[in-house]
Amino acid sequence: MRLSARNQLKGKVVEVTKGQTTSHVRIDVGGTIVTASITNEAVDDLGLKPGQDAYAVIKASDVMVAVD
C-alpha cells in the first residue's frame, strides 16, 4: 500500500471500542497512544483487533498548539 500522506505512524492496536456506528481505535506508537474514530464497517473490513500491527495515518492541513 502506498499513500500520499507522509505522516504514517506504525504501532500496535491496543484497544477497539465499538459504539453504535463509530469505533475508537487506540494505537500504541512508541509508548504514545493515538486514538482514531472510524466507522464500525471500517473496523470490520480491516479486521482490527488488539495486538495487531497498524498504521495511524494523519492527513491534516492545520496543526494547532495550545498551552495552559
From TrEMBL:
GO terms for biological process: molybdate ion transport. Residues 2-67 form the Mop domain. Pfam families: TOBE (PF03459). The keyword DNA repair does not apply. The keyword Cell inner membrane does not apply. InterPro entries: Mo/tungstate-bd_C_term_dom (IPR008995), Mop_domain (IPR004606), Transp-assoc_OB_typ1 (IPR005116). Keywords: Molybdenum. NCBIfam families: Mop. This is Molybdopterin-binding protein. It comes from Lichenifustis flavocetrariae. The lineage of its organism: Bacteria, Pseudomonadati, Pseudomonadota, Alphaproteobacteria, Hyphomicrobiales.
